[in-house]
Design a protein that fits this description.
By secondary structure, the chain is an alpha+beta fold. It has helices spanning about 30-40, 55-60, 85-90, and strands at about 70, 100-105, 105-110. The longest helix has 10 residues, at about 30-40. It is globular and about 40 Å long. The model has no long low-confidence stretch (mean pLDDT about 80).
Length: about 110
């Protein structure tokens, strides 16, 4: 049994009464706006989203990001997944770069 039994809620996405709509880009993915609205209806007003580039871009494009910490590591992957997220895309979401620093070779930016 979990130490925090009330801290985690599971939402059955196959249950039509949850009314979580797909986004317009790809029907396999949930709309970030619908996710945030659903969480808000449950009294959750602050969330941290950690995901890959598609998840980050979807939340940015829906203007649902009010803070971002971006870590860029100087490594090459055998099969890289480009993020397709530019500084322009971040600025269009209403974020302003507040600073950046080097941390052991990684570049950390906060927006």
């Amino acid at each position: 049994m979990s130490k925090f039994p009330d801290a985690v809620k599971f939402v059955d996405l196959s249950d039509k009464k949850n009314n979580l709509k797909s986004n317009s880009v790809d029907s396999r993915f949930l709309s970030p706006k619908a996710i945030v609205e659903d969480l808000s209806s449950r009294g959750i007003n602050h969330i941290m989203v950690e995901g890959g580039p598609a998840t980050a871009l979807a939340f940015l494009q829906d203007n649902l990001v009010d803070r971002a910490i971006i870590v860029k590591a100087p490594i090459q992957f055998k099969d890289p997944v480009p993020s397709s997220i530019s500084e322009e895309e971040i600025c269009q979401a209403g974020l302003v770069k507040l600073g950046q620093m080097d941390s052991g070779g990684d570049t950390i930016e906060w927006w």
